[in-house]
Each structure stands twice: as structure tokens, then as C-alpha cells.
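Next comes this protein.

***
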Amino acid sequence: MKEIKLPINQTYSMRLKFDPAKAVDLGNGVVRHTLGTFSTEDAAPSLEMARKNGGNILYATTSVEQQLENILMLYFMGPFIKHEERRILFEREILQSSALSYNAKKELVSKILAHNEVVDNKVLNKLQQKLKRIMEWRNAFAHGKLIYDADAGCSLQYYSGSAKTLSLTDDLWSEVEECFLECTELLKAVQLSVEKHVSESRGLPGFD
């Protein structure tokens, strides 16, 4: 498969540092200061990794969203038994519609769990926190701007209620990994609980 290369705008920044000890007197009251040097080649590997990680966040969020869709499908349409046109229509025209955003699916799943008391409040609150954090990261990388600072390294500037900056450190990447893994496992457990609830409420076999 061919790797594509697309034009990307990139922002670099460097703080100006004046060191009087390194000033050169050129005479006639003129003093020359060295402001330091900046190499974009040094920044390239970090920026490339930041873009790659950001892309992974976007793809992984799509997987989380599909898990939410599976839970909604299970709750409203029941477990899959045989091919049904209305099931396909519900999936295509509602669950996968642009009108039903990630946030809407997140809130709908939370209301279903709370209303039916499928999971306890501790699990529900933890799931809501994970889903919200993932949504914030997804939106930040989808709409934000990568910055490379000579001193601070990579960061992501984005707007969410106000202008914000996210430092792209190894600690952050570890937090992202942990959050996605925990969220995925929580959603798997929730889906099993919803399946049991639906089967019991409809009198389906397998959950006596």
C-alpha cells in the first residue's frame, strides 16, 4: 500500500534569551546579542510521533464509539437472532447517522444504564469520566494545532470553552493508553450486563 504525503502547516517557537556575557560591542553604542539557534530537524521526530499518536487517538475513539453503538443496538433492538431490515435501517440511519454524535451516544448509554440500574453508580461514573476524557482528546487532536517549542517540546493548542494547551509528554501518552484500555474493558462489561438485562426482561433463554 502506498504511503501518502500531504502538505502540513507546522508552528515552531523559541524563547529569546539575552546573555550579557555573550554580547559583542560593535562600537558607536551598537551591541550585538546572540539569540540562540533552532533546528527543525531536531523537532521533526517528536512532531512526527505526536501526529502519529494523535491519529491513533482518532482511530481508537472510533472503536469506542462503535462499542457504544453496539450497546444501543442491543438495548433497542435486542440480541441478533436473524437478518432484519429494520435492524439494518436502525443501525444505518440512526446509530451511524451524523445526527447522532459521539457525545449523544455517550449520554444515551449513560441514561440507559442509570434508568435500568444495569451497573452501580461507581462503575457508571467511572465510565462517564473515561468517555468524556476520550472525547476531549479526540476533539483536541481533530481541531487543535501542534506546536513545537525549543524548550518545552511538543504541545497541542485547542479551544474547549477557552483556549487550552496540552503538553504532549510521555506521562500524557501513558495516561491516554490507560484510559482507552480501561474504557474498552468497561464497555465490554457493560455490554454483557445490558445483554443480560434485555434477555431477562424479554424472557429470552440463557440467563435464568
Observations:
- Strands lie at 11-13, 24-27, 30-32, 145-149, 153-159, 163-167.
- The helical segments are 40-77, 85-95, 102-116, 121-143, 170-201.
- The longest helix spans residues 40-77.
